[in-house]
Amino acid sequence: MKSNEIKEAALKYFTIHGYEGASLAQIAEEVGMKKQSIYAHFKGKDDLFLQVLRDAKETELSSKRQYFSKFGSKNPEKDLYGYLQLVIDLFQRNEQLKFWLRMSFFPPVHLEKVIEQEVRDIEEKMQAILESKFQDWINAKLIVGDAAITPTFAFLGVVDSILLELVYGNDEKRLQAKLAASWTVFWRGISHQ
Amino acid sequence: MKSNEIKEAALKYFTIHGYEGASLAQIAEEVGMKKQSIYAHFKGKDDLFLQVLRDAKETELSSKRQYFSKFGSKNPEKDLYGYLQLVIDLFQRNEQLKFWLRMSFFPPVHLEKVIEQEVRDIEEKMQAILESKFQDWINAKLIVGDAAITPTFAFLGVVDSILLELVYGNDEKRLQAKLAASWTVFWRGISHQ
DNA sequence: TCGATTTTTACGAACGTTCGTCAGTTATAT
DNA sequence: ATATAACTGACGAACGTTCGTAAAAATCGA
């Protein structure tokens, strides 16, 4: 399918240059066609962008859902740390996550309402799943605290800080050091008495 | 000084639309002049951008340095939490910090080498200051742990996660909740036995 | 202090390029 | 033969930039 090739190239350029900085001419050249030919597959730049966005959202959602479903109820340390490693792994191998991250925080202004809606949607789903897991672990007395919201937000914060390091990311050593530090302190913070 | 007005407008548009999305025509209109007149003050778009970047860097550096200098050696809880609130305050009132953050993570490609250098410079300075403070607190047995690097990186992670929430930021409630959660867990993680 | 001179700032006009998009035509494949 | 896909050509608009020019401001010698 040629449409997918176009979306792949678009994903790449949108990720590197942003919406405004990516041109249809470059995207088309990457696929080996003229920019006008893109219009045989998409209504225009916005349409292409939104389809790429929705694909990225779906990938993000399903891959994380899949991992969350493997969470048990008796080993939060392993599950949570494994999730952080998954995020790193996904980010480094999956172009879609980088795209998703960039557009979450710096969307093209004229599409920001639509994007914000998608971002909020996926975020709420993730938070809900995580929160219920944390509640299970609290009930099982595997971690301390009364409200599940605290470790949930704190963990989401750790994920965010790792993602930021990945975006900035040219220093694998530093990434691993930050991961280790954040994880150590986080785990002490929710597990110790 | 008209140059400063131009830089102010440029800061605004670069922050909202990114380098590629910001046009000299819009920036000029904001100041009440034509785009050609900008060339009486700056060599071109890149020159304007880099001057704005360096101003932002200086503001960021001096404002944080100023706060760090007030850090004592006997109350890390107050100092660190106060710093987080300062970051939030600065971000919400100071356009330059938003600009700095956006360009740190998603710089225009053709200037990414220059920007990366500036970012790395400021980051190393911050890290060095923080690390020495943490070492003092460890020595004074006010926080636990052996190496200062662990709480330093963990704290920088908390700062990053707060910044990310600020960027995304339309939800003050959620911001405060995330701050509270991250701080609670972080402080438990470095202070409790 | 004054007029003369130089420098600074802003402007209209235009440059060459690139942008996204649309219309019409040709080639390919079902 | 009919639909799909890619092409050529062209469109208006916007981009950053350069030119020459005209005020305005600053500098300077008398």
UniProtKB/TrEMBL annotation, chains A, B:
Name the source organism: Peribacillus loiseleuriae
Q: Which PANTHER family match?
A: HTH-TYPE TRANSCRIPTIONAL REGULATOR RUTR, MYCOFACTOCIN BIOSYNTHESIS TRANSCRIPTIONAL REGULATOR MFTR-RELATED
Instruction: Write the lineage as a comma-separated list.
Output: Bacteria, Bacillati, Bacillota, Bacilli, Bacillales
Instruction: Give a yes or no for keyword Transmembrane helix in this entry.
Output: no
Q: Which Pfam families match?
A: TetR_N (PF00440)
Instruction: Please state every residue range assigned to the domain named HTH tetR-type.
Output: 1-60
What InterPro entries does the entry give? Homeodomain-like_sf, HTH-type_TetR-like_transc_reg, HTH_TetR
Q: Which Gene3D superfamilies match?
A: Homeodomain-like, Tetracycline Repressor, domain 2
Keywords, comma-separated and alphabetical: DNA-binding, Transcription, Transcription regulation
Molecular function, one GO term: DNA-binding transcription factor activity
**Protein name in the entry:** TetR family transcriptional regulator
Residue ranges for the DNA-binding region feature of this UniProt entry? 23-42
UniProt entry tagged with the keyword Secreted: no
